[in-house]
Amino acid sequence: MANIGFRIFSNINRPSIALVEKFRNIPVANICDNMGRIYCMDESIKRFNNANLLGVALTVKAPLGDNLMFHKAIEMAKPGDVIAVDGEGCMDHSLCGEIMMRTAIKRGIAGFLINGCIRDVEALMDMDFSVYAKGVQPKGPYKNGPGEINVPICIGGQVVLPGDILVGDKDGVVVIRPDDAQELYEKASAHNEMEIEKLRKIEEGTLNKQWVDDTLIKKGCEFI
How does 11-46 read in b/e, with b if 16+ C-beta sit within 10 Å? Predict the structure, then answer.
């Protein structure tokens, strides 16, 4: 009999490291602009130090204020994984702190992404380890379960599937399906180069913005 709500799916299809690494130096904004501008997490998910996020999602669905499955996910994760935890947005208990973060660093885990709270933020500031979460709460979690690992979850208004590529910088986090990644990389990379060229022209004073007036005229704007 299926024990829905208390299950661990052991295997996920991870994209290649080479494919994931292509997104390392592309801004989240440039990636999301080439995804219809609808695949970024909302502003409730914040970065808590200066480390950017890049890795493959290992997902956890946790009950309110409980991190039993989070601990198990750390044991299961492979180097380069991001442990993405949907803690139902609970603000009453933290789901992890310094001990879990340092354990994850030792195992080569790329970061934590949490729909819920963390603690030990002062210690995190000095870590080269990416953590995004909804908030901070000093009260610790319970360890009773249930929960599930490697199932679809929701964080910051976005569905995250096991094996998705997660990219985060100071602007926020974007979710990439592996099947879309190569084509998206090509588009986002070209977009980034275009913006670099625009910045160069701004410095030179040669940026042409005739498109603004052209758009206003096309839409029937009255100039008085």
Answer: ebebbeeebbebbeebbbbbbbbbbeeebbbeeebb
